[in-house]
Amino acid sequence: MKKLIPALLAFSAAFPALADDITYAKHIRPLWDDKCERCHGTSAPPYEVFLKDKKTFELDDKGPRMDSYESFVFFLTGPQAGALMRRLDDGSNTKDGQPGNMYRHLGRGEQRKENLQIFKQWIGEGAWIVKGAGELSKDEIQKIKAAK
Ligand code: HEC
Prior knowledge:
The chain has nine helices and no strands. The chain has one domain. It is an all-alpha fold. Heme C (HEC) binds next to helix 3 and helix 7.
């Protein structure tokens, strides 16, 4: 037993945050409240309403509502699978090398990178795949952790 404890400590130091440790409730929601809520909160229209009048909502800085775990993962593993990765990527995984258009909302400078890292850890090892709408395979979607 005595030997096991240092081994465990070394293990947790090497992997400071495994995907299972990052949850929507503990890490993503507070980040979302800070960075995304003003345009995707309760005052934003549900997705199907948003789609009917995109232009008007966009002019008003309103995107589709994502104010619960369920409405958020809709853009991750649901009908809009992968949208979150497409929008938040910093450009290192996109075809044209340009960041997704929500990346800039993740904060300034270092904070932006750190917040992206939290999102990536939440999605899980190997699951941050940037592909077009409808292009993620079932296997790729199944890799997504996104713990509640
Ligand atoms: C200043 C307002 C604003 C902020 C802040 C903002 N968004 Fe957005 N977002 C929009 C608008 C408007 C759209 C719809 C237009 C578009 O598709 O680009 C959108 C679209 C999206 C989409 C695509 C939805 C779809 O149709 O598939 C995702 C995903 C997204 N945002 C995630 C986020 C996340 C995560 C954050 C916080 C890090 C965030 N946004 C912050 C305004 C914002």
